[in-house]
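I would like you to sit down with the record closing this message with an eye to the fold:
=====
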Amino acid sequence: MPAPRRKSTSSQRRWLKIQTKYIRVNDRIRAPKVRTIGEDGGQIGIIPVEEALNLARERGLDLVEVSPQGDPPVCRIMDFDKYRYEIKKKERENKKKQSQSRLKEIKIRPNIDRHDYDVKLRHAVEFLQDGSKLRLTLVFRGREMAHQDLGRQTLDRLVNDLKDYSKVDSDYRKLGRRVTVVLSPTPAARRLRKNPDAEEKKDAQDQE
């Protein structure tokens, strides 16, 4: 006669998908015995899964299978909602690190007008505040090649206007009719985004 199925609450049916595996929680744990770790990180030992579940319930916590490949599987008594929050937090941090490897590009012309320059500058600041590296590309066309010094001044000006958000990652490179420079975001760029009032205060001080 098959053993009666254990009743499970909605909280006990929660699964968290991480990459290609699922975390089993409470009544979803299938092993008859588990190596159990307490909420303080101490070893409880290999005990029947029912006993481990009772220990978790007595503490108002969950039994979470943290290493299903073990023999027997390793389970830990913990607050599963808090555990899930920590995992999501790590995933967000990993995404931030990945965003830092992205490379954005902004192209400018030697004779760019004031309005277009301000638009390019604003976009450049946004890219850097998002944690992206930034390639500034100065493009010459036709007779503009005869006035490369003026174009270089425009590029220098943009690099200088971004000095509070970035640092030069690589030297200027000339490739045909193009001059490029790569900037990396600084920690200050993110801080200014989180606290825009600080940026406005800084601008006011500069104007004084």
Observations:
- The radius of gyration is 28 Å.
